[in-house]
From TrEMBL:
This is Phosphatidylglycerol--prolipoprotein diacylglyceryl transferase. Catalyzes the transfer of the diacylglyceryl group from phosphatidylglycerol to the sulfhydryl group of the N-terminal cysteine of a prolipoprotein, the first step in the formation of mature lipoproteins. It is an enzyme of class 2 (transferase). Belongs to the Lgt family. InterPro entries: Lgt. PANTHER family: PHOSPHATIDYLGLYCEROL--PROLIPOPROTEIN DIACYLGLYCERYL TRANSFERASE (PTHR30589:SF0), PROLIPOPROTEIN DIACYLGLYCERYL TRANSFERASE (PTHR30589). One of its GO terms (molecular function) is transferase activity. It comes from Emticicia oligotrophica (strain DSM 17448 / CIP 109782 / MTCC 6937 / GPTSA100-15). Pfam families: LGT. The chain crosses the membrane at residues 24-44, 56-77, 97-118, 125-144, 190-208, 220-239, 251-274.
Amino acid sequence: MTLLEIPWNVNPIIAKLGSFELRWYGLLFASGFLLGYQIMLNVFRKEHKSEKDLDTLLFVMIIATVIGARFGHYFFYEFDSFLKNPGEFLIDMITPPYQGLASHGALVGIITALVIYARSHKDQPFLWVADRIVITVALAGFFIRMGNLMNHEIVGKATNVPWAFRFNAFSQTPTGDLIMTPEPFARHPAQLYEALSCLILFVILYSIWNKFKEKTPRGLLLGIFLIWVFGLRFCYEFLKENQEAFEDKMALNMGQILSIPAVLLGIGVLIYTFKNKQNQEAA
């Protein structure tokens, strides 16, 4: 036992009414979208875009995030099981409680959805809307990782650092009540590391946009987002337990492998941004 470890005894269930459970994860997940909507409303007003488009954009983001993240989880982490019974997994993919979400799948889903959205909104090109959406996605990342913390999931490896968290293992009684049993050792609070990184990124991205608004170079915020989130994700994975057993035999786990192309894409976007900016200044 470490001298200053933090016992993490938070119950993931806030309240229960019959079979219905109100969980911290669901509340935090929804909070990310609600606050994100308010941020985008502010962006649309200051850049003189139609506020009516926000309802469509919110719907697109919710669908793309959930389906992309769920499909990504099955495709990257449970592909063999998915192939054995695809119908069951397709139903599970779109129904709550959405256990198993892959951020890399969400990225693919969001990018695809924004390309489609931008084609039908000519005053909002892809890079324009992507630059502003990533501000809200960074904030949503903070809430989602805090939800993971509340759920005692996506835990870090065992450690004796003073800020180590002692998480709980869960079992259920015949009546469905949770029994929380402290683990025998403390771990890195990897969820908290990622949550704080997302919160810092949100402040950075929003500050850049707030300074330049419509003059923000196209692709700048998207490039920073991709490099920051997935570059740090690659590093944090060294401190986290693997999500699936097959990753134990790999030099780099699935999260790290998938983060590499995301970082390279971010670098490519920034190169395009700065070249485009130089061409505009030379014109």
